[in-house]
Amino acid sequence: MEEFERLLAEGEAEPVEGWDFSWFDGRATEERPSWGYSRLLADRLSAASIALDLQTGGGEVLASAARGGTRLVATEGWPPNAAIAAQRLRRLGGSVVLAAHDGLLPFREHSFDLITGRHLIVEPWTEIARVLRPGGTFLTQGVGTGSNRELYEFFLGPQAGNSETDEGAAARAADRARDAGLEVLDVRHEKLRVVFYDVGAVVYFLRKVLWTVPDFTVAKYRPRLAELHRRIQVEGSFVAHSRRYLIEARKLSG
């Protein structure tokens, strides 16, 4: 079990602040949606004068897409991430506001001509519509129902309430956008392959994406982790599937 203990220790030792996933290189892979969120984000930012990125994490995605000429503002609810994002975006003239993901946005109405969000915990549609300028757009890539179901059911057993299709999750998000008064311009959804090549990568993933198995600790799930380690040794990997959707919506003028 020496290798098992080493992999557990590696997965536990890596810091989880921010949304840099480069540690997974060679240890896990995830297909990317065909629409290319970062490319779309860069394109929309290039046409915006002031943009707001919701729940920005460490600001990695926003910073990588920024090309100058756009005033950048971001929100983040976890103080360690907010500090990382503030340092990163300050170099681009941007700022970060500490704000709970499920509360009111601390901005005046009609403040932004672009609002973006990648993998939001909550999509505050009413607030998005309020702070968007008339004619402004909202671009989001969301996590669909049942994302990584194979992984969390390995630890938790079969879970109820995951029968919604990828198409249904995207359609539900689009309906909420319309209910908030936005015009939906684009709706897409995809199911994507996720592959873990060692148990340490699973430990780090579950620590970092903590809502996958909300009560996860290595100590609590050591027997299941040992079983997963043996399975990966025999089969070469553990395969799950993420679910993603894209919504682009516009606030009507007038």
Explain how this protein is built:
There is one protein chain. The protein has 254 residues and is of the alpha/beta class. The chain has a single domain, classed as Vaccinia Virus protein VP39 (Rossmann fold, 3-Layer(aba) Sandwich), CATH 3.40.50.150. Helix content is 37%, strand content 26%. It is built from 9 helices and 8 strands. The chain has helices at residues 2-13, 37-46, 60-65, 79-90, 125-131, 149-156, 166-179, 199-208, 222-235, and strands spanning 28-30, 50-54, 71-76, 95-98, 112-118, 132-143, 182-196, 238-251. The N and C termini lie far apart (66 Å). Keywords: Methyltransferase, Transferase. InterPro entries: 23S_rRNA_MeTrnsfrase_RlmA, Methyltransf_11, SAM-dependent_MTases_sf. Residues 52-139 form the Methyltransferase type domain. This is Methyltransferase type 11.
Structure summary:
By secondary structure, the chain is of the alpha/beta class.
Please report which band the strand proportion falls in: under 5%, 5-15%, 15-25%, 25-35%, 35-45% or over 45%.
25-35%
Q: Give the structural class.
A: alpha/beta
Radius of gyration: 19 Å
- Secondary-structure arrangement, i.e. CATH architecture: 3-Layer(aba) Sandwich
CATH superfamily: Vaccinia Virus protein VP39
- For the record, the CATH class is Alpha Beta
Please give the alpha-carbon distance between the first and last residues. Answer: 66 Å
Total helical elements = 9
- Poorly predicted runs: none
Q: What is the β-strand count?
A: 8
Q: Which fold name fills CATH's third level, the topology?
A: Rossmann fold
The helix-strand sequence is HEHEHEHEEHEHHEHHE
Largest sheet: 8 strands, mixed
- Give the number of domains: 1
Strand order of the largest sheet: 1-7-8-6-5-2-3-4
What is the mean predicted local confidence, pLDDT? 94
Large-scale geometry: globular
**In which range does the helix fraction lie?**
25-40%
Domain Methyltransferase type: 52-139
GO molecular function, one term: S-adenosylmethionine-dependent methyltransferase activity
Organism: Amycolatopsis albispora
Keywords: Methyltransferase, Transferase
